Recover the amino acids of this structure.
């Protein structure tokens, strides 16, 4: 497992995270302006979140998820040390010292090993 130091604070958006399972049907909308590799994905229950476009079998409209994904983001302050599990589309799935997990952008991190 890799480690990183947070070099820029990150705050999760004020909306519920969604969990996407492989095979889920979603409707894809617009691409994110700051993160164009992400697309707005809406589940059948109406909840939506940003997910990597590469996760789906289509680029817009009706799509099927090709893998599991959770949109949960991790709040982190500069100077914190994190354990990194996986990288997707320039974001890392990370765990902090208290055991909280979520995504954090790579640009907010300094990789240590």
């Amino acid at each position: 497992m890799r480690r990183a130091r947070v070099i820029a604070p990150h705050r999760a958006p004020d909306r519920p995270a969604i969990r996407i399972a492989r095979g889920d049907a979603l409707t894809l909308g617009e691409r994110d302006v700051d993160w164009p590799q992400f697309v707005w994905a809406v589940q059948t229950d109406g909840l939506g979140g940003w997910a990597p476009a590469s996760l789906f079998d289509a680029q817009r409209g009706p799509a099927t998820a090709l893998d599991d994904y959770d949109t949960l983001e991790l709040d982190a302050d500069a100077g914190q040390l994190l354990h990194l599990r996986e990288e997707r589309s320039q974001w890392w799935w990370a765990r902090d010292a208290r055991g909280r997990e979520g995504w954090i952008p790579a640009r907010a991190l300094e990789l240590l090993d």
